Amino acid sequence: DKNVILDIGLNFRRLSRMKVLIVFDDVTCFSQLESLIGSLDWLTPVSRIIITTRNKQVLRNWGVRKIYEMGPLEYHHALELFSRHAFKRNHPDVGYEKLSSKVMKYAQGVPLAIKVLGCFLYKREKEVWESAINKLQSILHPSILEVLKISYDGLDDKEKNIFLDVACFFQGEGVNLVVKFFNASGFYPEIGISILVDKSLIVIDSYSKITMHDLLQKLGREIVRQESINPENRSRLWHHEDTYEVLTHNTGTEKIEGICLDMSKVKDIHLNPNTFTKMRKLRFLKFYSSSFNGENKCKVSYLQDPGFAEVKYFYWHGYPLKSLPSNLNAEKLLFLELPGSDIEQLCDGVKRHGKLNQIIHAACKKLIPKIPSPTLIPHPNNLVALNLTGSKSLKSLPARIFNLEFLIELDLSGCSKLKRLPDISSGNISRLYLSGTAIEELPSSFELLLRLSWLDLSDCKMLKSLPSSLCKLKSLGVLDLHGCSNLQRLPERLGQLSSPILLNLVKTNIEKIPKSIFQLLVLRRLILNYLFFDQSNNFKLEGNSTAGIIEDSQRTEHMGHVAAARWKEVREKRGCPKEGHFVLAGNEIPRWFNFQSVGSFITLEMPPDFFNNNRVLGFAFSAILAFSDRHVDCGRWFSFSCEFKVKTTKDCDLHDTRLFQSRVNYVESDHLHLGYYLFCEEDFNGFWKCNCIPEAVHFNVFPPLECQCCGVKKCGIHLLHTPDSTNSMEDPSRCFNCN
């Protein structure tokens, strides 16, 4: 009502000289705020406005400075809220603990779901609880559905299609793949996905995966389910029972746009050759198996005129035919994945001149030994990824495979008969996987792969050497040589690499690390775990092959050089990590650590002006992590950290700083963790502001209840100085006292 809004606006202006708190709840659009209060000029500087909305864009348009996104309730808070509604007390009744836990797992911290389900289950018998919980796995409670659907109803048709496709098919998929699929479907995903994110309907996580809350996924699937009581008249099929019914009875219709079937959940399906004929709008087809040893259960002798003209995504685990359907239109096809299939030709049957981005023929045992020239691949210049993992018959690659303009990922892992790569004249490949191949050497022209960031040569047991030209790959970030048992040396100039790199040398025959490794200023991780399993499944150390490496790695000048170089990078704000970490087999703290202690704790006595000393660079730290034989009960992975304890002379929240944290795995021998932490400008300013004095360093293994089989045996600390200062303080004993 415009008159009501006008009256409210006049009343607001009467508050112009007062300190006020105004709350606008559930705002749907910017115009609502604009109509209510106009500009913010009339508010006093100390007044505050709180706005709740389902759309972040409303807040941006209004110039909101701080946006707080509500997260899920923590478990104990969620359980207390649920108990207040389900039991009228702060905890579940006796005998209802496990049932309440199941409800918590379903609600996942969403207050709306917790309150609705609590009220719904109040004073009901256990049998009713069990039935209700089982029903909720497939059908949303109407009250929850009604509220969640408000945001969905505010979307346009393209955005609704994106939401429903994610809910039915793309939960957890990479955003790049999804964007290409939606673009090909005409859904304008760049703006559509942005709007869905703003309305908290989907999330793009730190790994660039598209995810959504389980309740929102159930909402999307329930919307599709309500399209028709008959599954063949719905736009999307994802539930194995519905899909099985449609395929076995051959009742598919043109309404079906996507099918996703987990074959491990159904019996064998003998497809009619005309199964897909009526599905003229089919955009997405995925037959997969969630079982590790899954097999193809969709049997068919041939396909007669399948309706694949609109298919963009075609995935069929164990595809039973030797060639693809003749009308699989590469003009529309973007992703072709046929792992474990009987296919014999790479793209046989696909019409040429299309948009095909990705081909995956993993574990195709019948694939011919020689794949065709790129000129025979449908529109090769659009190809972004080629995956032939586990194709054991493959012996050679076409000469121009690396020349494809847009090819950025080539996966040949497990192609055990592949012995050599063709010479390279150019290429944009950034990820190359050669794990488990019979490669004996890399071509000298390898240096022309200027954009290569990930090179996986693990378990290439025939590989004896690496070309010196490898050092020219300025973008290389990961070099995995794990299991290259015939590899005896690394290129001497490996230190010329300039990008942050992870170097894995586990189970190689390398006896000496090139000195240039320690000039590698951005070495992220160097893995030197020289362990192997003997016939009794126990770890043993290859002492002779590791002695030189350990001696090299523990030299103080190496640690000092790496830390000093990193310090310079950090000071110049180049984004270089301010900590480094090495893990080596061993049970002794290096001798150059001035102060060592038995156990996990070192106390420090520092002068009051310690952080005002511009010679201080940081700390080197070391710890021996030991494992008992009680590993059966405590799992395989643990977290290990080093914390810097401080005391403050001002009222300040700063009490400790975690210098380092890493995940470690169980082994049956002691291992040395060796690293450093550099103080950056923020550290100095923070410590100085609070008048902080370092008090102790503590090494932790956690969570403690699960890690009784793992502990810190010894530890050490060493003060590092800036490159232009002396190697040690005038009297180090004045700064450290170890207990």
UniProtKB/TrEMBL annotation:
One of its GO terms (molecular function) is ADP binding. It holds the Pfam family WHD_ROQ1. Its EC number is 3.2.2.6. Keywords: Leucine-rich repeat, NAD, Repeat. It comes from the Eukaryota. Residues 157-228 form the Disease resistance protein Roq1-like winged-helix domain. Residues 584-723 form the C-JID domain. This is ADP-ribosyl cyclase/cyclic ADP-ribose hydrolase. It comes from Citrus clementina (Clementine). The lineage of its organism: Eukaryota, Viridiplantae, Streptophyta, Embryophyta, Tracheophyta.
